[in-house]
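Submission checklist for the structure archive. All mandatory fields must be present; incomplete records are returned to the submitter.

[x] Identifier: Cytochrome c biogenesis protein CcsA
[x] Organism: Vertebrata thuyoides
[x] Residue count: 307
[x] Sequence attached
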Amino acid sequence: MNISSIENNLINTSFVLLLIALISYWWNLTINSNNTIIFLSQTLTILINLTIASSLILRWAENKYFPLSNLYESLIFLAWSITFLQIFIEKKTKNKFTGPITIPIVLFIIGFATMSLPNELRLASPLVPALKSNWLMMHVTVMILSYGTLITGSLLSFLLLIISNNNTIQIEGNSNSNNQKILFRYQLKNTNEISNNFNRIKLIQLIDNLSYRIIGFGFPLLTIGIISGAVWANDAWGTYWSWDPKETWALITWIIFAIYLHSRINNKLEGKKPAMIASIGFIIIWICYLGVNFLGKGLHSYGWLIT
């Protein structure tokens, strides 16, 4: 069995593990939560992360360059990034919401990379001259890590919108970083409903703060990725910025999340309004990452399928 076959088997194994983890996480969230299921879910995520990492390392060893030169490799690395971030968040926060929303996305990424991409985009090929640079690892790695981080934070914001979209609770006010006061209006009917709504408020605050912290970490990564890309572009093509479709949408992504952070830091907003901005950012990320490659041709054309 050659290295390519082992790599493919590792990716297929990760797909199967993702299916099991998806069932485990959602079982724990909706049906029966206990420590055994939580441990199983987290162990599966670690195995998935190690399996994906092993496939990338084998590809790196076989082809003698960091595996980020085509769309397939970047998708696999994105899947690794999201699972790594998920493991870190679960370790630090002990919350049970990150896994159920990130595992389906990773499952989609792996499924799309292995089942939808044509073979020519999955096969490793010698690097073109522009990619034979140390900037390949620096720029592309940071960009993919920022995508994974911002996707996770945006998913939590989307989850916040779903939870808060209930007639019995309406977020109406704002807060500041000093006293963290939030004004809520309730439509309450009985004592049980009061308890349920206070639990919902606490849950919304938890998800809101976690989403803010994750996006706050991903935004500097995106900034560093764009700056390093501009420096690399000047070295490779003689210009820092050429308004290539990928560059343009990366700038739009940066602006969207800058607006989100501005609304949180300066306007002291929490809850649904910033979450809506982050949810829009989730769509923009995928347009920047995949849509541009499928629908437009430019200097960043490794994943472009239309000829």
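[x] Structure attached
Curator remark: DSSP finds nine helices and two strands in the chain. The chain has two domains: 1-126, 145-307.
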